[in-house]
Amino acid sequence: MGTNVYSVSQITNLISMLLEENFPESVWIEGEVSNLTYHSSGHVYFSLKDKDAVLKVVLFRRYAEGLRFQLAEGLAVSALGRINVYPRSGQYQLVAEQVKPLGIGELALAFEQLKKKLRAEGLFLEEHKRPLPFFIQRIGIVTSETGAALRDMLQVIWRRHPGAEIIFAPARVQGEGARESITGGIELLNADGRAQVIIIGRGGGSLEDLWAFNEEMVARAVYNSTIPVVSAVGHEVDFVITDFVADMRAATPTAAGELVTKEVDELRDRLGVCSNDLDYLIFRKYTEAKDRFNWAFRHPGMRRVQETVENLTQDIDRLEERAQELYRIWKREKEEQLRLQAREVANLCRKLIDQPEWDLRQAEGRLLMLEPKGILERGYSILSRNNGEEVVYSTVQVKCGEEITATVSDGEVNLQVLEKGDE
User: Fold this and answer.
1) How many domains does the chain have?
2) N or C terminus: fewer CB in 10 A for the chain?
């Protein structure tokens, strides 16, 4: 009888076929999670174990993304999947498609895990919560535009505060895409900036229906909002993660509408109380101040203060008189300086005027000495011939017996040449 010899691949394939024949459909397997690894690829690797055996499990990314809770070491779960052999390691394994926690619902576990995580990060601390404004005029609402919650809130708000302005950001509040829609609504109202408060919420439902308000993305959007947020989800007995993160929780959407509004009568009463308190406070402060003033005025030390003030008043009067006297002296000195300077300027101007006048007179005198009339007045005369047309300045110009004219200072004299000196 011959002996069959198999390669590793052959025997592995045979074992795999046997497993597939015996486990043709997916099976549920319960066990405790161990050797847990969240791979960067998105796949999750872990083992299911009990007291006697260990089974390798792989949860591929497309299924891992559907988990609403976090797997953890020691967590008892039930996994649904196919049994096969992984040839590379020669080990049989469970290729899981679903994983559910044992003893507690999947959503309940996810709720507690996220609640624990966010509490550890400080998102629930009271010190981060802001009070709502006293008088709210502009209210932002993130909810479904077709839900009863919106109608209930608007009825309450406009009944109590008819002038309130509603800034509405419609959002999906259930099912696929709800967490992104609610987060987007919160961010939109923050970017708009007009709302004084934001209400997020919806009507009641199952834990599955309310789950969008238990998503980490929504919780962080509430925490990061610069505008105070009121969480109004479900009924009074319902609690979601946003209730713990929000600045204030309302038991129902209707309660949220009452929470963010004040009735006119209530405001009038509050204003009346404030007015009375203010009047009393002013009167009390005035009375206390008056009593302290009277006590201080009668106090012996006040007399010394008064004397000091009176002395200072007299000192001020003396200083004022001294200042006025110094000003008068300074004014007289300045006036005298101005007079001296004016006199010096006048003298300088007089010199500037007299000198040209003197020079003019000197020039005039010299001109008068050179003037012909002046020369004639000193005894000189001017001889001319031919009826004054030719001045005689030499003996060669005239002949004996010729008549010439002599011009003197007061007229003319006709002369006849009898003899010439050079003959």
Assistant:
1) 4
2) N
Percent of the chain whose pLDDT exceeds 70: 88
Secondary structure of 337-404 in the HEC alphabet?
HHHHHHHHHHHHHHHHHHHHHHHHHHHHHHHHHHCHHHHHHCCCCEEEECCCCEEECCHHHCCCCCEE
Task: Report the pLDDT value the prediction gives residue 1, as an integer from 0 to 100.
Answer: 46
388, 404 in Cβ contact below 8 A? no
DSSP single-letter state for residue 226? S
Identify the residue whose tokens are 């049994």.
83
Q: How far apart are CA 298 and CA 119, in angstroms?
A: 63
Residue pLDDT, tens place only, 180-238: 999 999 999 999 999 999 999 998 888 888 889 989 999 999 999 999 999 999 888 88
Task: Write the CATH number for 235.
Answer: 3.40.50.2300
Quote the pLDDT of residue 191.
95
166-181 per-position pLDDT tens digit = 999 999 999 889 999 9
Mean pLDDT of the chain: 82
Please list, in sequence order, all residues whose beta carbon lies within 8 angstroms of the beta carbon of residue 10, skipping any fewer than 6 positions away.
Answer: none
Average pLDDT over residues 8-36: 79
Contact between 179 and 215 under an 8 Å Cβ cutoff? The reply is: yes
Tokens at 274, concatenated = 């404030």
CA distances from 153 to 35, 57, 203 (A): 50, 49, 11
- Please report the DSSP string for 130-173 in residue order: -PPPSS--EEEEEE-TTSHHHHHHHHHHHHH-TTPEEEEEE---
In a domain, 123, yes or no: no
Does 381 or 78 have the greater pLDDT score? 78
Q: For the residues of 185-204, what is the DSSP string, one character each?
A: HHHHHHHH---SEEEEEE--
Rounded Cα distance between 210 and 111, Å, is 11
Tell me if residue 415 falls in helix, strand or coil: strand
